[in-house]
Amino acid sequence: VQLQESGPGLVKPSQTFSLTCTVSGDSISAVYIYWNWIRQSPGKGLEWMGAITSPDRSYYNPSLKSRTSISRDTSKNQFTLQLTDVTPEDTAVYFCARGGSATMENTYWGQGTQVTVSS
After folding, report:
1. 14 backbone dihedrals φ, ψ, rounded to 5°
2. Please, what is the average pLDDT of the chain?
3. Share of residues in the chain with pLDDT > 90 (%)
4. Which helix (H) or strand (E) holds 59?
5. Does the pLDDT at position 43 exceed 90?
6. Are 20 and 110 in contact (CB under 8 A)?
């Protein structure tokens, strides 16, 4: 199973950005599989952001829920993270991952993509 993140590297404060995770070697429609988004800010630990699973049920970190949306495109075998009203505190490496629950406990991880929020 391989996961690959893609998206903008630089975003301005107050804007919205989206990251897409393209999955190969597994189907995002598989049951009992959770597709997670996790980030790591400079000097901080990993932070679980949210997850999506079949059939189209999503879960969110309460601290980010108001600004986060996770969706999926089964025809492309991709799932997407959208984060609104960003600030420099959202600067982080963002990872997509596959696991058996909506948590940071994941078996497969993407390599991560850097998103910097700066004017």
Report:
1. 80, -10
2. 96
3. 92
4. strand 57-60
5. no
6. no
Q: How far apart (Å, rounded) are the C-alpha atoms in residues 68 and 70?
A: 7
Contacts for 63 with CB less than 8 Å, ≥ 6 apart: none
Measured between alpha carbons, how far is 50 from 54 in angstroms, rounded to an integer?
14
The pLDDT of residue 16 is 97
Side-chain-side CA neighbours of residue 95 (13 Å): 21
The secondary structure element, H or E, covering residue 11 is strand 10-11
Q: What is the pLDDT of residue 57?
A: 94
Give the residue among 104, 7, 99, 111 at the shortest CA–CA distance from 53: 99
Q: Looking at residue 31, what DSSP letter applies? A: T
Widest CA span in the chain: 41
- Is residue 35 within 8 A of residue 28, CB to CB? The reply is yes
